[in-house]
Amino acid sequence: MNDLSKMYQVYVNKELQVNKNEILNVARLKQKTLSFLHDLGEVCQDSRCFIFWEKEEAIHHDELLEHYLDGLKMLMSIGYELRIDTIKNHTEIPNRLSLEDIFLKIYQSMMNVSSTYSSQDYQNTIDDYFSLGFQLGIDLDEIIDHI
After folding, report:
1. In 22, 91, 107, 125, which residue has its Cα 20 to 30 A from 100's Cα atom?
2. What's the pLDDT tens digit per position in 99-136?
3. 73-85 residue pLDDT tens
4. Rounded CA separation 97/130 (Å)
């Protein structure tokens, strides 16, 4: 079992302790989707990728990491709601998309998840979210240490 799959299983086990044997709760899934999109917006703001009227400021890595991890936890919680059993290992493949494009891609794929409940759409979203983290300078060990 790979590191991401182990991390996901730990999170699912926590969720199971709280929400045993429930069927898909569409209202809760929508709430979690909104929460994730909010966290994604926080990461976007922290990355400073859309600041074009203000002067350049340094990115505060600790703040960025905190918001990124909030989004990751919510994304894992969404996986639990969808009853996703495992996630595939994400290898660090260089992403050729700009930060703006990857944020928009994650947003679009998350909207697909919330309308289709597809495990493939969910996997695409989590893959893109990890790619975003790597592009922002957040490495897998740092994620695992804080989750």
Report:
1. 91
2. 999 999 999 999 999 999 888 899 889 989 988 998 99
3. 999 899 988 888 7
4. 13
